[in-house]
Every structure is written in C-alpha cells, then in structure tokens.
Amino acid sequence: MLTEDEAREVVLAELARDAEAIGMDLAISRVESVSFGWVFYWCARRDIGRPAGTRPSLGGNAPFLVDRENERFVQKGTGIPMSQQIADYERRLRREAHARNTAAKRAKRQGSAATDAAGGDPDGL
C-alpha cells in the first residue's frame, strides 16, 4: 500500500524521465485525493503560477492516476475529462473486485466438492 509521498516519488521519477526526453523541466502542479488514491497534475515548471488565461508552454500533459492499494500507476490521454477517467477507473476496480470474489467463491465450492467426493474428511481422520 502506497502513501502519498511514495506515490509522489513514483510520479517525480516518471517526470524526470519525460523531462530528459523533451528537454524541459517538469513539476507536479497539483495533487487531488480520490477514492482509490491520487491524481497528480503536472506541467512545465515555468508554467507554475502563470496568470490565468495565458497559454501554457506544454500541451498534452495528461495527469497520472496512482492507486494506493495495488500501486498501479496509470496515465491516460487528455481527450477525456478527468472526472470521467476517474469514474472509469473506479468501475474497473469494482469489476476486478467482483471477479476476485467470484473466483474465490468458485474455488471454495470446488474445494467443498472435492472434500465431499473424498469421503468428507480431507485429512482422512
């Protein structure tokens, strides 16, 4: 399970790689807590504090979603509103949890069936 500080380190490491590739200093501009973890918004360092309405020097900087439970690090595009991306990710987590629960129930039923077929006592006592 990640803390916000650990998640920040993951994002900063990714930004450092990206900064080297594009030749621009990048920084986290804002962090939003969400149900599963955090959304890290980022931009060119020189754009932090820039007056509203001025054009930023960097485009296409999709925020990072970081999941505290499974330590998943997700970056999607900028063409879908962030609120929708968050809702989509939350649905994904619910589907994954449902699939795990279903698999656990199935395994338990199969274990019970194997025990019954073996005569009831798996240890033979």
Write the layout of secondary structure elements.
Elements: H1 4-22, E1 26-34, E2 37-44, E3 64-67, E4 73-75, H2 82-117
Antiparallel strand pairs: 1-2, 2-3, 3-4
What's the short version?
44% of the residues lie in helices and 19% in strands.
Describe this structure in words.
With 125 residues, this protein is α+β, with helices and mostly antiparallel strands. The chain has one domain. Helix content is 44%, strand content 19%. It has two helices and four strands; from the N terminus they run αββββα. Strands 1-2-3-4 form a four-stranded antiparallel sheet, covered by helices on one side. A hairpin with a 5-residue loop joins strand 3 and strand 4. The longest helix has 36 residues. The protein is elongated and about 75 Å long. 11% of the residues are buried. The mean pLDDT is 87.
Protein traits:
125 residues; alpha+beta; 4 strands; 4-stranded antiparallel sheet
Mean of pLDDT: 87
Helical fraction equals 40-55%
- Major sheet strand order: 1-2-3-4
* Low confidence ranges: none
